[in-house]
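step 3/5: co-fold with 2NL
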Amino acid sequence: MQELRDKYLSAVADVTDEAALEEIRLAALGKKGEISLKMRELGKMTPEERQTTGKALNVLKDEIDAALRAKKAALADAALDARLREEWLDVTLPGRPRRQGTIHPVSQVMDEVTAIFADMGFAVAEGPQIEDDWHNFDALNIAPEHPARQEHDTFFMHRDEGDNRPPHVLRTHTSPVQIRAMLEQGAPIRVIAPGRVYRMDMDQTHTPMFHQVEGLAIGKDISMANLKWVLEEFCKAFFEVDGVELRFRASHFPFTEPSAEVDIRCSWEGGSLKIGEGDDWMEILGSGMVHPKVLQSAGIDPNEWQGFAFGIGIDRLAMLKYGIPDLRAFFESDLRWLKHYGFSALDLPTVAGGLSR
Ligand code: 2NL
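step 4/5: write tokens
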């Protein structure tokens, strides 16, 4: 009896995993276990023997059972302790730095320009980038033989063989958006149309996709004086200067009459661009009074209404404000020059701060 007790209790003490512990339990207390077999032998004993041996066996059985349970609990505790050590987290550890995305300078400038015109009461109009021939050209008084309509200037969409309707185009300006806005809303109207436009042009200063913001204001007596004020306010806000001087040069667009290209006074002294002072002029946009034929096409009576329109190229404005030296950098890798210039939406260099030419 003492031998059995020592054997099982030391086995329980030595065991290090639950599976082995279960084997010991079966060997001792299982149906065919050693203790169980001894219990069965009680029947062959004399009543006196049976009483003492039976009692001793029961005590032993309870003792082994208690040892098994205690060990099982201890093993579970040890396993939990090990897991807690293993899965320990240092919540005070600083986070791993993650790459941060930034707003693209062109998007940034689009948003700035939109906000400035919104302050002057211009709503934002949007339209399709794939346009039909009429909205992109005809409605804008662009004649069928105009060079812009040539195969090598405009991206034309595909038409099936035998389908002789004029093909759709990738819009070459956002003017068709304003045509649509006039047709939908009529006069008076004050909108800007920011967005992507496409022309078959690709060299050091041209990309086949670029960005434009066009503006349109139609009313009973809107004049070029209003145009001048709006553009001056825009330039002051955009270039963050108190005063600007604009120069209106007579020009020609099919959709405006009269037409003017607008230059801003500036200087490039010491390789840094200053807006509003100096002896240089820099062209920033095209503009004019909306041509009566364009109003007519857009469902507005030119005998009753008139107004101005303008078109600003956004990509070059972004370069001027944020110092991008070469448009091709857009294609090679946006990231490359974003890194180079350390562009951050929160840390903007100002034009007056001095950018290299
Ligand atoms: C330029 C010239 C211009 C317009 C765009 C326009 C739109 C309508 C009617 C009349 Cl719906 N005009 N837009 C007018 C004058 C110039 O853009 O050189 N942009 C960069």
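step 5/5: annotate
Confidence is low (pLDDT under 50) at residues 325-331, 343-357.
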